[in-house]
Amino acid sequence: MGNEQHDFLPELSDQEGPQPGPSWGNPRWLESAVDADADLTQAMDPTAMKLAVKDAAAKAGKPTDPKAIEQAADNSIRAMLMVRLYRVRGHLAANLDPLGLSHRDQPEDLSLEWHGFSGQEDLEVYVGGVFGFEWVTIGQLYRVLRETYCGHVGLEYMHISDTEERRFLQDKFEKPEDTIQFTAEGKHAILQAVIRGEEYEKFLGKKYVGTKRFGLDGGESMIPALEAVIKYGSQLGVREIVYGMAHRGRLNVLANVMAKPYRVIFHEFQGGSANPEDVGGSGDVKYHLGTSTDREFDGISVHMSLVPNPSHLEAVNPVVLGKVRAQQAMREDLDAHEQVLPVLLHGDAAFAGQGIVWECLGFSGVNGYNTGGCIHFVINNQIGFTTSPRFARSSPYPSDVAKGVQAPILHVNGDDPEAVTFACKLAIEYRQRFKRDIVIDMWCYRRFGHNEGDEPSFTQPLMYDAIRKHPRVSELYSDKLIEQGVVEKGLAPQMREEFNALLQEEFDAADSYKANEADWFGGRWAGMNKPADPETARRNVDSAIDKKLFDSLGRTLTTVPDDHTIHKTLQRVLDAKRAMFDNGEGFDWATAEALAYGSLVTEGFGVRLSGQDSGRGTFSQRHAVWVDQNTEEKYIPLCQLPHGKFEVYDSPLSEYGVLGFEYGFALADPKTLVMWEAQFGDFVNGAQIMIDQFIAAGEVKWLRANGLVLLLPHGYEGQGPEHSSARLERFLQLCANDNIQVCNITTPANYFHVLRRQMLRPFRKPLVIMTPKSLLRHPLAKSNAEEFLGNHHFMRIKSDLTEIDDKKIKRLVLCSGKVAYDLIQKRDEEEVDDVSIVRIEQLYPFPGEPLAVRLKRMTNLEEVIWCQEEPKNNGAWFFVESQIEEALTEAGHQGMRPQYAGREVAASPATGFAKRHLAQQEGLVSVALGLSERGKSHRKMNSTRKKKA
After folding, report:
1. Which residue has the higher pLDDT, 521 or 640?
2. Has residue 694 got a pLDDT over 90?
3. Exposed (0-12), middle (13-18) or buried (19+): which is 256, by Cβ within 10 Å?
4. How far is CA 875 from the centre of its chain?
5. With 80 as the cut, is the pLDDT of residue 281 above it?
6. Residues 782 and 821 in one domain
7. pLDDT for 942
8. Which long-range contacts (CB under 8 A, 24 or more apart) does 100-106 make?
């Protein structure tokens, strides 16, 4: 309502109520929530209004008799209701569609008649400072309301609970000095930016006829608007912007916002690469690629990066947010959230249709995932490929999902570049002040089809008939500026001619362009490299720690502060842990993990672990966070260590979004061990897009290394089809070109070493670990203190627990994971002495060389079995079969092929019946050990003896 306060519109106070407890605290927007209609409630109070009107009438020399005051108060109340309704619903009557095809009935409650003012335009009413008016005629108030809320910008903000935020947006919209106003120089710059956007698309269309480019044609107002974000953002403290966007307009943004050299893009159109020829990699299509650059406005430099992404629309969103969070951490900007800004550019159909959009909006106020607000820019083409909006969503706008986090939404007509630029200027001011998400919904159109080779008139003939007749943005805007006397008539053609000359120069230079270097190991990644030889690079890394650090970590992990009351069961866990350090024996999985984290932090690395139950651990095994039983205050032992930083977060109930966020964090920061843990490994398939498109293929497509670790609880223990399998086979199917690492580890110490190895090598590869469930506390799955010290390191292959002379071994059972202990226990029970059980701890890159060395020593070997718990069409069998055969050949066992022992093929990964599970498990173990054949042989021998007798 402006800065001036009035008796009937007092400053609203925060809502009072019971103080929330530590585990059920409300988001900030709810803690500061007030009655969204409080100012209207005050205005509707007849007594308060009469007093205000009487006082104002006296000052203005107007009649103050009771009857006149009562009528004036009634008029004011109705006028204030009209103001309120325009603030809430004015956007529904805004002029947003450049094509004029969106037919929306005028809401009745926005008319003078509905408010009882028909034919009373000259009636003067008291409004107490609204729009700067004390007294105003109804006609003038109505015109101002229409101009403000029903012009080329429609504002949705009255769903926001926070009073300060609403008042800020209201002031920016209603104060004349804060509305859409630009200097002549500013208008000149906007026109130039629009022309650059248009002519660039037209140039590409002429030079590369029929080539897909997913042009911005029809939405070029976005170019000056994004430049406004950089310009005004830099003045408000922004020093880095991370962008994410889909295809539409990407090449235009790369060239005209990110300042990627035109010649490089033209070189890529001609089939060339932006990277040196010796770098390798598969590359990707032009409209998936990213870049990074620096731009300077008003003497302030801003670093910008556009994250590469696949055709899965919106999949890049959490990656951007995770990268921003990492950059904020490195800039020590996590409290202010001022220096690093995320900007996400969306398509209208994708913003409304893709669930990942909501997952990312949901991060906006969550501890550990908050980035201090994101600017969302929706390129609203009013069509999704061939689908019209009424078939694509159930809400009026594609942006309606953002109301769930109370983000303000600015709907804007894309044919008005000043309005779009104003919206972005307001957006960056709002974000920098309140550190919250905000959405710009730019209504425009797609001048061509889904891509430039598409025929859109097959499905939308009327829309494309209107588009063919519709003038371009620059033509409309230049005519407007000519009419205003801001530019001369020949300026726009001159700008076009000069820019096309520049494009032609760059086009000619593209033929001889050669990249000097790839950009993937600069900045924070300096000192990292791509391993020259995948096999030797993964050999022994000095990952052990010294005894002094080991003992120090033991004290940290078992010491409870005097003022902290922990759960009695946790106390028993800590007592047992203390005994491990005292005796040097029996170290379990959780303790080994904590030792890995603690040692890395002490050495200066960061450690970030997130997942749905990561603080305690899904199986009550980790207890990284100790909760005071009286106050719920949290104590994190590993946070007490010096040098590095340890973070553990119980994440939102999301796989897709959270995994993408952690991938983005690891993309930015190779000095932090970033881990995502699935509640059960089976749930990882909810994030399959992130695995297929980013984790497995990101390096080879986009030259972006990443050290993300996936912890996936896996193992067949009779818990049914959704709590058994992390789909090991899917990860192994993705393995190629030394892209990822896949492990199924069986000892705590080996887990300790693989985590440390991940950070101590000079390169980064995603690491997928099938983590255990029952092995977390299995009596055989223990390690001794010495295995963490001295010269110990990660073992890609683990020997049998029982020492057997190599020459005595006739059957070798190879396996990975939990089934190894089932095999060992059964073999020892049956007193079989010629069967060895060897565990493959790292499945990819497959340890063929050390396995061949092991096989070569087994000179009397007759059979090699691969045993797995998973069905035959799942698990590792189809991946390891050829790898084992190669190792056998290398070891001199020509002609010997591995045999399979495991469950039969199955459509479901596991049975849900306990008895059937036990029978299957017993059967596969017996087959693997050859116990059934031994039984047959034993019975045959006894039968022969009886006949002889």
Report:
1. 640
2. yes
3. buried
4. 29
5. no
6. no
7. 38
8. 100/466, 101/382, 101/462, 101/463, 101/466, 102/382, 102/443
CA distances from 404 to 15, 87, 380, 395 (A): 20, 19, 20, 13
- The burial of 804, by beta-carbon neighbours within 10 Å (0-12 exposed, 13-18 middle, 19 or more buried), is given as middle
Please check whether residues 605 and 573 belong to one and the same domain. Answer: yes
Same domain membership, residue 569 and residue 479: no
Distance of alpha carbon 734 from alpha carbon 536, whole angstroms: 22
End-of-domain residue from the set 788, 811, 828: 788
Report the run of H or E that residue 880 belongs to, with start and end. helix 877-890
User: Helices 417-434 & 222-235, crossing angle to 10 degrees?
Assistant: 30
**CB half-sphere exposure, 478, CA atoms < 13 A:** 19
For 333-363, write each residue's pLDDT tens digit: 999 999 999 999 999 999 999 999 999 999 9
Cβ pair 599, 542 in contact under 8 A: no
Quote the domain boundaries for residue 357. 198-514
On whether residue 14 sits in a domain, the answer given is no
Q: Provide the domain count of the chain.
A: 4
Question: Does one domain contain both 284 and 221?
Answer: yes
Higher pLDDT, residue 714 or 269: 714
Residues near 889 by beta carbon (within 8 Å), at least 6 away in sequence: none
User: Do 784 and 804 fall within a single domain?
Assistant: no
Sign of the torsion formed by the C-alpha atoms of 795, 797, 802 and 808: negative
Q: Provide the pLDDT for residue 274.
A: 64
Per DSSP, the three-state class of 927 is helix
**Confidence class of residue 905 from pLDDT cuts 50, 70 and 90?**
very high
pLDDT tens string 305-342: 999 989 888 999 999 999 999 999 999 999 999 999 99
Both 805 and 783 in one domain: the answer is: no
Of 168, 165, 158, 183, the C-alpha closest to 38 is 158
